[in-house]
Amino acid sequence: MLGLAKRIGARFLLTSTSEVYGDPLEHPQKETYWGNVNPIGERSCYDEGKRTAETLAMDYHRGAGVEVRIARIFNTYGPRMCLDDGRVVSNFVAQAIRKQPLTVYGDGKQTRSFQYVSDLVDGLYALMESEHVGPFNLGNPGEFTMLELAEVVKETIDSSATIEFRPNTADDPHMRKPDISKAKELLNWEPKVSLREGLPLMVSDFQNRILNEDEGKGV
Asked: Residues in domain NAD(P)-binding (predicted)?
């Protein structure tokens, strides 16, 4: 794709990830932070794949003059996500709707930041329309532990939902929170939709699809 962008003079958008920071020793994470990543762990193919993609994009930018734009996307949620994609927000929402326990890995004290999809789209658009290469953190600085997220999901869907603790996954980052001051200053962007505003929009979409799925099974 970078070769194609070079040949036709296109502007190239790389949707990178907050996972380039690994299990960060800096909090919140700024774009200048190089990260703390295990190169041979279970999550490494994703973490290092995105880091390598950033490297290639910058090589093409410096060496061949390709106009690249790099966005480091933090956890994003919204309607039309896959019901069973394994992401924590879709997991919790689907489980609560199906009257299943919410599965929390480890002690549930690890933190994440959740941005609504429309905020991300606005950020990507602002980045592509700008003259700045990046990288830019695109995320919502509101920080929640997994247990806090589970409580918000319970409040929104079913207050009687239970929580089931399971052993933590390997190399699971303890903290994740973007410093978005660079995007605020250079892109004039910041997220507008809070978790408590965005989650019900996702929930109504999930409820419709899970209901249709159950009807298809004759439930």
From this structure: 5-200
Instruction: Provide the residue count of the chain.
Output: 219
Are the C-beta atoms of residues 129 and 11 closer than 8 Å to each other?
no
Give the residue among 135, 137, 138 at the shortest CA–CA distance from 119.
138
Active site residue 60: no
Annotated catalytic residue: which of 21, 33, 46, 105?
Answer: 46
* Cis peptide leading into residue 79 (ω within 30°): no
Pairing of strands 67-73, 136-138: parallel
- Cα–Cα distance list, 209 to 11, 76, 79, 96, 204 (Å): 36, 19, 10, 14, 9
pLDDT single digits (tens) 184-218: 999 999 999 999 999 999 999 999 999 888 666 65
CB 167 within 8 A of CB 183: no
d(CA 15, CA 6): 18
User: Whole-angstrom Cα distance, residue 184 to residue 187?
Assistant: 6
**Cβ partners under 8 Å of residue 69, min gap 6:** 11, 12, 13, 14, 127, 128, 130, 132, 133, 134
Which of 125, 118, 136 lies closest to 193 in space, CA to CA?
Answer: 118
State the Cα angle at 142 between 183 and 75, rounded to 5°. 75
3-class state of residue 152 by DSSP: helix
